[in-house]
Amino acid sequence: MSGEHHEHTLGEDLRDGFKALYQRFWKFDRLIGASLIRLMYYLGLGVMALALVRALIIGAQELGSDPFRGLKDMTGALIVSLAFLLLWRLLCETVILFFHTYARLGEIRDRLPPPPKA
Questions:
Q1: Number of separate domains in the chain
Q2: pTM score above 0.85
Q3: Within a domain: residue 85?
Q4: 116 is a domain residue
């Protein structure tokens, strides 16, 4: 073994990182579904936040012409947003649970003794 130390350049590091990502993506040796679900969760939160802000702005504009309707719409928007947030979180957690269950079953399978030879 020589005492040489090879320093990686940024290009080599990026190439190695993309190569590892490419191999992980196409070999299916590691599931990426749970990570994608987390990403979808945060994107959904962003969409819900934008919808809530839009509904609150519309409700605030209605305050001038019909204060009761404006307050009703704003309160309704908050309640519906909280309900959808809870349901969205529940849905995403359920899907992630499926991925974790699959991984755990794989671990259990790997710990089982080999089947007897006939």
A1: 1
A2: no
A3: yes
A4: no
CA distance between the termini of the chain:
48
Q: What are the tokens at 114?
A: 């080999």
Instruction: Express each pLDDT in 6-50 by its tens digit.
Output: 565 666 766 776 777 666 667 766 667 778 888 999 999 999 999
Tokens of 1: 């073994």
Distance CA 33, CA 104 (A): 15
Sign of torsion over alpha carbons 88, 91, 95, 100 = positive
| Nearby residues of 89 by Cβ (< 8 Å), 6 or more positions away | 41
Domain that holds residue 57: 32-110
User: pLDDT digit string (tens) for 45-85?
Assistant: 999 999 999 999 999 999 989 999 999 999 999 999 999 99
8 within a domain of the structure (yes/no): no
Q: Is 92 contained in some domain?
A: yes
CA distance 80 to 44: 14
